[in-house]
Design brief:
heterodimer; A: 219 residues; mainly alpha; globular; B: alpha/beta; 5-stranded mixed β-sheet
Amino acid sequence: MDLEALRLSALLASVTTLACLALGLPLAWWLVERRTRWRAVIEALVGLPMVLPPTVLGFYLLVSFGPRGALGRVWMTLFDRPLAFSFSGLWLASVITTLPFAVQPFVAAFAAVDRRLIEAAWCLGASRWRAFWQVALPLAAPGVMGGAVLAFAHTLGEFGVVLMVGGNIAGRTRTLSIALFDAVEQLDDAAANQTALFLLCVAFAVLVTTARLRPREVR
Amino acid sequence: MLGVLLLAGMALGVAPPDHPPPLNVAAASSLKPALDALVTAYASHSDTVPVMVTYGATGALTSQAQNGAPFDLLFAADLDFPRRLEKAGKTQGAPTVYALGVLVLWVPNESKVDLTKGVRALLDPSVHAVAIGKPSTSPYGQAAKEAIKAAGLDDALKDRLVLGASVSQAARFAQSGNAQAAFLPLSLVRHEPLASKGRFEPLAGAAALSHAAVILTKAPAAKAFLDFVLSAEGRAVLASHGFQPPAE
């Protein structure tokens, strides 16, 4: 198996999971707490990458990463190098495609928390911040873990968007799924078998883990 | 809803009677503008069957053909992959060289790079990414890799090379401006959308790529279409799209 690709995929999946936690937890809490009329729109926006073909996303990202795209221009001014074909660009693309896979379990986990407990915390003088960290989050922990594990696994398996914006650079954008695609195209069945079997085992382990983490009421 | 699906299924399942099956052609992505024109020209002749073309990297199409993809005819961008199919016993007869392709170095209009310096032009600091086809499956990508090696710049450019799944994805990377230079076939850069977006220079000293075709099935239309491509009319279309005639 391509160890360079394995290292890259593991790194990408880790930083993407961290970003999904940092962005997804406040977002999910907000979606559960604030019932504004924008809720449906925001939920739809976050969920879009789940239903869109990766090619749609890949195309938009490729165009917006370029010198004629807003994102590409801002990045170039800030860092003096292009966003496309870089690990940072791949990370950004991964966070966008993976966020819904984390946010949906987060929302389900927060929604399952007994609201009376949160309100009790407020009545006892806890700030919103403290009620979130010390009451809501611990109670939702299994669901949050499940979302994080799913985000990790989804990034590991992401293919379409990476193929379209990555540029297949060893150590920078050649992830495991791309290495597998290369092996298949080159009729290298031995390498393809190893990588495919590895990804299959990871996916299976992930599903077993998420099933175990799911709260009993929902099971 | 179910009814609509059933109707659609029936429409797909029932082939119109007394129509010959279409010819399935696999072709290198560098051929797209030229072969599209050839298929249109072929369709204007009487007694021809419709030609359906699948474009992709030569190596990828070869793998697919080897694994039983239903192609009747393969137009490759090199001679090695068709020979591989011949050795594997998947062809009807030997490969025929139908054209020679030219590799060029392409930069977008706004680039300040001096193309007359050849491959060395890519050392310019404004060039962050150079798009090429993936060398393992794209003959033009392989040729680009060899040109870079011949210029002694493998190490200098190693971190700047961006690989497209086929050479047309490399073209896409360049056309969107994400790559600041690309090694592309002349047959692609002479046509829109690339033609108006950049300039190019053929690589001095690089040999032209022999493009060969092989027939993969006994479909009579395969031979007929290949003969058309090799005819004076076919060669004129290829020449107008930047291909050179094969050496006699």
